[in-house]
Design a protein that fits this description.
Its EC number is 2.7.7.7. It catalyses: DNA(n) + a 2'-deoxyribonucleoside 5'-triphosphate = DNA(n+1) + diphosphate. Keywords: Cytoplasm, DNA replication, DNA-directed DNA polymerase, Exonuclease, Hydrolase, Nuclease, Nucleotidyltransferase, Transferase. The protein is α/β, with parallel strands linked by helices and 1442 residues long. 39% of the residues lie in helices and 17% in strands. The chain has 49 helices and 40 strands. Strands 13, 14, 21, 22, 23, 26 and 27 form a 7-stranded mixed β-sheet that branches. Strands 15-20-19-16-17-18 form a 6-stranded mixed β-sheet, with helices on both faces. The chain has a 5-stranded mixed β-barrel with strand order 8-9-10-12-11.
């Protein structure tokens, strides 16, 4: 399709419209873009007005959908300055009609012209920056060119418009006053004169600009009121600076963005500075600012302050002080590792305890112990003890199915199935308003009971809405004291049955005791508990979902008579299942079906570590909770299992009751089952009382909640204190800490809401007061127990418990490698054997020195086993035909090279004679790559010498002391990865090998999304700054866990994993076969060996290429000149750039084929292996090339060879600048982990040191921006693999394309990609999309390869059900045969069927084909359409003619 149509119109076309002096020379019409350009010649600029008329006429004729533009030349080449300015004004007005930003910021401006620069003066720096950011300077230049003004550059500058603004204000004021006078005049006869109108100036007087010296005398306003101001009104606010960032503008000025909070709300402010030094405030400082309110259209119309005065306040954030003489120990804290509900990180918890002067603090996250290593680190070297603990979720597997079971036959017992309706959930206070019951003899209904009850008070509306029972219904009904004797007679000695029986029994037993003075203790069955065991796969076990599942009628849910009827029918079904299972006696019902521990009720239990035995037991318990008993999104532990493993542990009973977290003592108490409380308490070592506000979730204004008031909590705490003392238990007081400050309950609400696990507002929006109290605050909280008791539980008991606990270390010190006999000698022997083979004996002095230096570190620090383990894994893969690529810094080790672990030779570039009788070598001690050296003949024996060496220091790998635990990362073929994992288990024992665990937390963008969603859903209106502040506090909250894609943690034989950490399933996926470390694997880097066994495509591709060509990859010259050419052009491929749509020829070359890296190649045009290594390092880092090196290269501050490309560059450069080696290594590690932006104070210390040693400013700034970067050894390994594959592309193209496409077969679509025209159209379509997902990116890459393949003269052979391979593209007669899997919709199982069946015999019909291969009719139709299957009859039937 033609993209545009060019027309030469009649010369006087405009004269018909009455327009003179304008001639159209050409019309260019773009059908695709609906655009018409009219090329015009205009006599003089004065005649431009005629174009307005022409524009209106054309719009009427063609409609608004057509975009009409004029491109103008003038007959006269000289115009006046006045005409020039008029043209500029015309352009600006045209732009303002179509561009909202122009309309906002170009309403006040001045124009001046100097030489070939048009200066447009704007009212402030914000306007300048906004227009530049929107590229409006370029747009104005383009429009000016359309108007015949060429060669001029547009420049925006900030100016002084105060006099103009004052004039406008005066005019507005006069209008307002005049209007007011007329209104006053009109009503003067009716009312007294109105007070004079106060007029506020919209813009401050004076030149404006930023000032630090001028004091702001006006009082500050609350930030929450800022939204009430109008644009340009002056605002004065003060608060804490919690975030700031600055960037240099095109004008050379600095835009500094400030985020300020007063604790209730937050605001964004912007300042324009001449230099960074003008801004001397930092995060945490308190400031007062004055400036105009602005609508920042560049930031989604955020309301901001454009600051012109900033005062730094002499104020610091007040710290809470624990001033008590005798201080408590907080035994219950939750960190951000308490999934989506803990607000503070463990460092903050420990820090607050230190500030309070506490001797110890317990870390007790829900169900997990992820925070232990970080808690230990936070306390290390400080005067505080960490008490390691966990608030676990316990299932009481000792609870019988029948409480007080009888020795009776199930089918002969009498059962009364009952249900109560009450005035609320409080079984201590709320009255019963209805009893419904059904009597069963065995499974047969024999009687019914139904009675409404007058509670003697009004029925709350909430209860009326739920039950349908109102005051009128119960007005004339008997009271409970009159009802109970009759109901008890109806029950007799029957077994009671109810759904969620503890609830109903609490009310019933209370009133029987109160009115009949009987301690009623019958046999009781809870059908809720029973349902969970009988139907373990059910999602819901409430009465409604269960009756629906069992097809039992439930007419009026929440009416006692109907609920009891439905429960009775359901119970009869349950009894049937017991009888079918051979259970006939009630005594045998407990345990008759497996306990459904995954869905039974859980109760919280505190578990504190007393000593190392206890730590190991806790790790074991946490592991079992995650692997053996995990259910309903919770790690659960059985009560019996906890009891069996309680040695070294202290077990506590928390009294908490809040959403999904209840202690069993408090739960039983609020069910009014005090006998159960008295029975359960003996399991615990101590009782933990909690503040009253923590129970707010169950407090309702109408007294329908589980508690009527905080007096109920006081009563419970007194009861539990007295019972605890009676039973000899320690009773403690705790804050149940989830955050540090009171106001941070909002953050917990956001996290809970974002977790998706809450469904009622009171479960997440109620303030539970879970802040970290001081001793005096907690003493005051428990004062209702009496001062002495309050001190006892808060101070004395917590300190006594602390004294029972030893200091323990969560991960033992030292290195614990797996055991391989004689590993040290084997490593040394293997290294020297290979070294002698390559370099001769004796070795060159530099080679021997390097080997000895490395071996001393490796053997001396116990790392021999790690090297030997890696060598065995690599050898296993190589022996099976799969090449292995190294990753990470292992390429820095010459010992690793000699042992065959890596192909990267870390020595200086050198020549090496491969003649076994010669072995002459020559070293060139400089940076670079040996493969780039010119060819050389051995001066001793006359043969061509090998070129090797990449100049990589060993210290990058293991530090200058050689004591950094080496991290050996290896890329195995994706096809062979699982086999290597199995071999790893074979080497070290399956019970000693675990997947490396990871912990996923809320990142910045996700956290902002959670906050924004919470604000939107709850109609909270706050600006971006407040969203950011809240998000900062949400960041780091644990979301889930996972596993490293190839990391294997090895525990030595003779040791248990529980000596180091617990284990679990990745993301708690109970269907996963993987067992991962519970800790993030990084925290055990120094203790346990981690083998990175990663799956990668490149080794698979190499294997396929070797099979297709027979070429030994080790014979490929890595510096092949023709291969190097494709990284800077297309000549070596025999195609043009236009034919393949790329300046370089690296499609399909790993690490160099993406659009991003191809552009880097275009920008740098590399010609050597060493340059490719630099590009690989730059492209794989985060903020290493983009937003960093690219900018410094373009600005001329550095060249490609000077910028930081790999982490080694930093260490080497700093050493060259005179910085001590160990410090240079520390700075390198600090930078490559992205710490400068996170640990600002440490970075300032390092940057000052670098400045003092003459390190350039741009280099320091480059380091600051880096978030992550490659080691050189990694980059070299990648480039080696890339060069090998690229070699095949240049010299064995058919094999290359067949191998590439075989690896990408899942992204190949035969219907599309068998047609070159369609492929090119698809590329254009995909390139038009602003952002591609992973699938589309893969599709684009395959399409690009196919276009290139055709441009080089290679074609596909059609897919054929008899000739095509199942999944590989096969070379056949100089072409490439498409595999069966290339047909979209033909799955792997069908492919396997076709391959198997065609071997057994040809297909005799389409019916036969479908039957034998299980292929769908749709797929058969596709095969027929594309001639992939020979013409067959439709069926097997044949006609016989006689």
């Amino acid at each position: 399709m033609r993209r545009e149509i060019r027309i030469r119109p009649q010369r006087n076309i405009f004269k018909d419209m009455g327009i003179e002096n304008i001639e159209i020379t050409e019309i260019v019409f773009s059908e695709r873009n609906k655009k018409m350009d009219l090329i015009c010649v205009v006599s003089t600029p004065q005649d431009l007005k005629g174009l307005d008329k022409a524009y209106e006429n054309l719009k009427k004729k063609f409609g608004n959908e057509l975009d009409i533009n004029f491109k103008i030349d003038y007959l006269t080449k000289e115009i006046t300055k006045e005409n020039f300015l008029e043209i500029i004004e015309r352009v600006i007005e045209k732009l303002k009609r179509t561009n909202a930003i122009s309309k906002s910021f170009l309403y006040l401006y001045r124009i001046s012209i100097k030489n070939e620069v048009i200066d447009i003066e704007l009212k402030n720096e914000m306007a300048v920056e906004t227009l530049y950011s929107s590229n409006l300077d370029i747009k104005i230049q383009t429009l000016l060119e359309n108007y015949g003004i060429r060669g001029f550059r547009v420049n925006f500058i900030s100016g002084d418009f105060n006099s103009e603004i004052k004039s406008i204000e005066t005019e507005i004021e006069n209008k307002i006053i005049t209007l007011n006078s007329k209104v006053a005049e009109k009503v003067s006869t009716e009312k007294a004169p109105a007070p004079p109108v106060e007029i506020k100036s919209a813009v401050p007087m004076g030149r404006g600009g930023f000032s630090k010296k001028k004091d702001i005398k006006s009082p500050s306003m609350p930030i929450s009121e800022f939204k009430e101001l109008i644009e340009n009104e002056i605002a004065v606010v003060e608060g804490e600076l919690f975030a700031t960032e600055g960037r240099e503008l095109r004008t050379g000025k600095i835009l500094q963005v400030l985020r300020i909070t007063d604790g209730e709300d937050s605001i964004t402010a912007k300042i324009f500075l001449n230099s960074p030094e003008d801004f001397d405030v930092k995060v945490g400082d308190f400031v007062k600012i004055s400036g105009k309110k602005q609508i920042d259209s560049f930031e989604n119309n955020e309301e901001i302050i454009l600051v012109n005065i900033l005062n730094k306040l002499d104020k610091v954030k007040s710290k809470k002080i624990d001033s008590a003489d005798e201080k408590m120990i907080e035994l219950h804290t939750h960190t951000k590792m308490s999934e989506m509900c803990g607000v503070e990180d463990v460092k903050g918890i420990v820090g607050r305890a230190l500030e309070y002067g506490h001797k110890a603090v317990a870390i007790t996250d829900y169900g997990v112990v992820h925070a232990f290593p970080f808690a230990y680190k936070a306390a290390k070297g400080k005067d505080i003890k960490i008490i390691f603990g966990c608030e676990m979720y316990m299932v009481d597997d000792t609870q019988p199915m029948v409480q007080n079971a009888k020795d009776v036959l199930i089918d002969e017992e009498t059962y009364v199935v009952f249900d109560l309706e009450t005035l609320g959930l409080n079984s201590h206070k709320n009255e019963i308003i209805e009893i419904g019951a059904v009597k069963l003899q065995g499974r047969r209904i024999v009687d019914r009971y139904s009675q409404l009850i007058n509670p003697g008070k009004k029925i709350p509306k909430k209860i009326q809405d739920i039950t349908g029972i109102d005051d009128a219904l119960v007005e004339n009904m008997p009271t409970i004291d009159k009802i109970l004797p009759d109901f008890m007679e109806f029950i007799g000695d029957a077994t009671l049955v109810a759904h969620n029986a503890p609830f109903d029994m609490g009310f019933l037993k209370r009133d029987i005791k109160k009115y009949m003075e009987i301690d009623y203790n019958p046999a009781v069955i809870d059908t809720l508990q029973m349902a969970r065991d009988l139907y373990p796969d059910q999602k819901g076990y409430g009465l409604k979902p269960m009756t629906k599942f069992l097809k039992v009628a439930l007419e009026n849910h929440h009416r006692a008579v109907d609920d009891s009827q439905a429960t009775a029918a359901m119970f009869a079904i349950f009894l049937e299942k017991y009888l079918e299972n051979g259970v006939t006696n009630q005594l045998d019902m407990t345990g008759a079906f497996p306990l459904n521990y995954r869905k039974q009720d859980i109760r919280n239990v505190m578990v504190l570590v007393k000593d190392l035995v206890g730590l190991k037991n806790l790790y074991k318990l946490v592991s079992q909770a995650h692997i053996d008993y995990f259910g309903s999104k919770k790690p659960r532990i059985l009560k019996t299992v906890l009891n069996e493993n309680r040695e070294g542990l202290i077990i506590g009973a928390p009294t908490s009751i809040h959403f999904s977290n209840s202690g069993e003592l408090s739960e039983a108490y609020f069910r009014n089952d005090l006998s159960k409380v008295e029975r359960l308490i003996d399991f615990y070592d101590y009782i933990e009382l909690q503040p009253r506000i923590g129970f707010s979730e169950f407090l309702d204004n109408d007294e329908t909640g589980a508690i009527a008031s905080f007096k109920d909590v006081e009563k419970m705490n007194r009861y539990l204190y007295d019972l605890g003392k009676e039973r000899g238990k320690l009773v403690t007081g705790s804050s149940n800490v989830h955050y540090l400050e009171k106001e941070d309950h909002k953050i917990r609400s956001i996290l809970l809401y974002g977790s998706g696990s809450v469904f009622r507002e009171n479960q997440y929006r109620v303030d539970n007061g879970f802040y970290f109290r001081t001793t005096d605050e907690l003493l005051e909280e428990f004062n209702y127990l009496g001062e002495d008791v309050s001190k006892e539980i808060v101070v004395e008991a917590t300190n006594k418990l602390n004294e029972m606990i030893e200091k323990v270390q969560p991960i033992p010190s030292g290195f614990y490698p797996p055991k391989i006999d004689n590993a040290e000698n084997i490593v040394r022997e293997m290294t020297y054997t290979k070294a002698y083979e390559l370099y001769g004996n004796p070795l060159p002095e530099n080679v021997e020195a390097r080997i000895e230096r490395e071996l001393k570190a490796i053997i001396g620090n116990g790392f021999s086993v790690l090297y030997l383990s890696a060598q065995k894994l690599v050898k296993k893969s190589l022996d099976n035909g799969y090449l292995v690529g190294s990753r990470g810094s292992v390429g820095s080790s010459i010992v690793a090279y000699m042992m065959g672990i890596t192909e990267v030779n870390a020595l200086y570039p050198h020549y090496l004679c491969t003649n076994p009788e010669c072995k002459h070598s020559e070293f060139i001690e400089r940076e670079g790559a040996g493969v780039d050296l010119p060819d050389k003949i051995c001066p001793k024996c006359g043969i061509q010498m090998k070129k090797d060496g990449h100049s990589i220091p060993f210290e990058v790998f293991m530090g200058f002391n050689g004591d950094k635990v080496p991290d050996i990362d290896l890329n195995f073929s994706g096809e062979y990865q699982s086999e290597i994992h199995r071999y790893c288990e074979e080497l070290f024992g399956k019970s000693n090998v675990f997947k490396a665990g990871t912990i996923s937390t809320l990142a910045e963008k996700n956290a902002e999304g959670y906050v924004r969603k919470f604000f939107e859903d709850h109609s909270i209106f706050s600006g971006r700054a407040e969203v950011m502040r809240m998000a900062q506090k949400c960041e780091g909250a644990k979301k889930t866990t996972g596993q490293h894609p190839g990391g294997m943690i090895v525990v030595p034989q003779g040791n248990s994993i529980y000596e180091f950490c617990p284990v679990q399933r990745p993301a708690n996926d109970q269907n996963s076969d993987s067992t991962t470390t519970h800790y993030d694997y990084h925290v055990m880097d120094e203790q346990l060996v981690k083998l990175d066994i990663l799956g990668h495509d490149d080794p698979t591709t190499i294997k396929i290429l070797q099979e297709y060509t027979g070429v030994d990859v080790y014979d490929i010259p890595l510096g092949d000149p023709e291969t190097l050419k494709i990284f800077s052009g297309t000549e070596a491929l025999g195609v043009t750039q236009e034919e393949i749509g790329s300046v370089v020829g690296t499609y399909g070359v790993p690490e160099f084929g993406t659009g991003f890296v191809r552009q880097m190649l275009v920008d740098t045009m590399p010609t050597t292996f060493a340059e490719l290594v630099r590009i690989s390092g730059l492209s794989h880092g985060t903020d290493v090339w983009l937003n960093n090196a690219q900018e410094f290269v373009r600005e001329g501050k550095a060249t490609l060879s000077q910028v930081i490309s790999v982490r080694d560059d930093i260490m080497n450069f700093l050493i060259d600048q005179g910085i001590e080696k160990g410090t240079a290594f520390k700075i390198m590690e600090f930078v490559r982990k992205g710490q400068p932006s996170k640990n600002v104070a440490q970075w300032k210390e390092y940057s000052d040191l670098m400045k003092s040693h003459g390190v350039p400013e741009w280099y320091i700034e480059s380091c600051r921006r880096i978030k992550y970067m490659f080691p050189k050894g990694h980059a070299v390994a990648y480039v080696m693999m890339a060069m090998r594959i690229a070699y095949f592309k240049v010299h064995y193209p058919l094999a290359f394309y067949a191998a590439y496409l075989s690896r990408k077969v899942e992204d190949f679509d035969f219907e599309l990609m068998n047609d070159l025209v369609k492929v090119k159209e698809k590329i254009q379509e995909l390139n038009r999309e602003p952002k591609l997902d992973v699938k589309k990116k893969a599709q684009l890459a395959v399409c690009e390869i196919i276009v290139e393949m055709h441009a080089r003269g290679f074609e596909f052979l059609n897919l054929d059900v008899y000739k095509s391979h199942g999944s590989k593209f096969i070379i056949e007669d100089g072409k490439i045969r498409v595999p069966l899997m290339g047909l979209n919709g033909l799955g792997a199982s069908v492919m396997e069927n076709i391959v198997r069946e065609r071997e057994l015999g040809r297909f005799i019909s389409y019916e036969d084909f479908k039957r034998r291969t299980k292929t769908s009719q749709t797929t058969v139709d596709k095969l027929k359409e594309f001639n992939c299957i020979e013409s067959l009859s439709e069926t097997n039937q044949t006609t016989l003619f006689f």
